[in-house]
């Protein structure tokens, strides 16, 4: 499965003073899943978290969530 099909939401957190990463399709995971001092670092860390989540889901025997797709008009 192409991991790049999953959504990644990155937002600035004043409270944490960093960018935080959410993976919306992974409802069983504690959110946010990662963070970073820069947007690019957060994106990289989010990709690493995604890989770990997929491995964890597969190890638990859980089905992977369906990637969200953009609805066009």
Provide structural commentary.
This protein is α+β, with helices and mostly antiparallel strands and 73 residues long. The chain has one domain (3-56). The chain contains one helix and three strands; from the N terminus they run βββα. Strands 1-2-3 form a three-stranded antiparallel β-sheet, with helices on one face. A hairpin with a 4-residue loop joins strand 1 (9-13) and strand 2. The longest helix has 22 residues, at 39-60. The chain starts with 8 loop residues before the first strand and ends in a 13-residue tail after the last helix. 18% of the residues are buried. The mean pLDDT is 92.
Architecture blueprint of SSEs:
Elements lengths: L8 E5 L4 E5 L11 E3 L2 H22 L13
Antiparallel strand pairs: 1-2, 2-3
List keywords for this structure.
single chain, three-stranded antiparallel β-sheet, 73 residues, alpha+beta, 18% strand, 3 strands
In short:
Helix content is 30%, strand content 18%. With 73 residues, the protein is an alpha+beta fold.
Q: Largest sheet, order of strands side by side?
A: 1-2-3
Q: What value does the Rg take, in angstroms?
A: 13 Å
Distance between the termini: 27 Å
What about the largest sheet?
Answer: 3 strands, antiparallel
Number of helices: 1
Poorly predicted runs are none
* Average residue pLDDT: 92
Report the order of strands and helices: EEEH
The tally of domains stands at: 1
């Amino acid at each position: 499965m192409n991991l790049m099909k999953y959504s990644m939401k990155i937002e600035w957190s004043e409270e944490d003073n960093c960018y935080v990463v959410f993976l919306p399709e992974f409802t069983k995971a504690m959110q946010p899943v990662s963070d970073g001092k820069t947007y690019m670092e957060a994106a990289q860390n989010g990709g690493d978290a995604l890989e770990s989540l997929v491995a964890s889901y597969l190890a638990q025997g859980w089905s992977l969530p369906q990637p969200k797709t953009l609805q066009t008009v």
